[in-house]
Input
Amino acid sequence: MSRRRGVIVGLCASALVASSGCAGTRPWEREEHALRAMRRTPDPGGAALDEHVYDSREGANGGFEDAEGTGCGCN
Amino acid sequence: MRLQLSARAAWGVTALIAVAAVGSDGRGQEPPGVRASARTSLYQDSDATTISTSLVEVDGITEGGVELGARYLVDVVSSASVDVVSQATGRIEDVRHEVGGYGGWRGDDVSVSGRYAYSRENDWQSHNAGLRGGLDLFGGDLRLGASLGAQQSTITRANAFGFERAQTAWLGAVSATVRATPRDALHAALSVSHVTGFQASPYRYLVIRGLPYLESYPEDRTRVALLLRHHRALGAGFALRSHVRFYGDTYGVLALTGGLELAVDRGPLDALVFVRGYAQRAADFYAPRYETQQPFLAFDKELSTFADVFAGGSIGWRFDDVGPFASLRVDARLAGFSFAFFDFPALSARYGLHAGLGVSAAIE
Output
């Protein structure tokens, strides 16, 4: 990993840790988080098929969830 | 499947990531009961390729938190793309079948699960399995996850005997999701995978000085991806969602993915519009043309330098208390896309549509 990428990863990790340590929500403040629109994947089934398209047509993959399957199914 | 074997390997790794998906909030918020869903999608592009995918899933969770699920997926591919033309085989038709199941347990703060899937098509079969665990801390404001997965694949040539290659993939992933404020959620996921074995196409040949050479890729590929997400609740059921992904691998491919989504959840209606961009640098050994034989040879646009954009949306509607179902949801999706290939001589651009329909029902 280059120094530049290492710095980016470090900054992102630090931001995540910092945000978890000094912030948060009380139970009565979580109404917005319960919305479907705030879920990581509002529509897992549809997102899985979208990821299927991306991953069979792009050189990169990884990081995203809720795509399922094996083999290829690509063109 | 006669096309894009490297993409096939990529999909295999995606499957591992799916196995390794950690802390998913999609099902965790569902009440005890059984759900069934069916979904179909159609992909059509300007490179003479049509893909139909159909998916059926059944899953359930008990009062005690025990989860079980099963799924069946079928892909039907018809293509006369430049990859097919290069093989001088004309239009190809392929069908892939996949079956899978999972089981797990969700406690108040801890979840564990295991998953297995088997996929088969005319020249490719794979076994895929994985384990994952999740842990909620600080009342659920911080959710941590970790996972491991493996896939074993066997590659052959359709209508040919004597060609058989193996491929093994391993993946580890960690993730963290934070409810940072009453309106903000942050998510980070780091995944590392290693694929070893045959990763080129058993069909594609390159002609160098009049002689044909079979594609050849390095047998080891390590891939690293870091995904960062931010979701911001805007009020009135709206949320602005953004993500960025950094990717690199030992083939030399570097990629950046970014996306922006506006989602709404208002009573029975949910909808989403999105735009997503992707750009990558070619693999180190990729060349538009080879003047002499090299240790590694590729005729694969997924290893070239290119960029793409997808844009579209989805809309869903939930009906409550329909016959025997506690709820019934129908949805539709449509996206358009465009690819620009900068150093792939056989194809400079590709565009098309990806559309889908889905229905899911819940019995509580």
In short: Helices of chain B lie at 5-20, 82-87. Chain B has a mean pLDDT of 88.
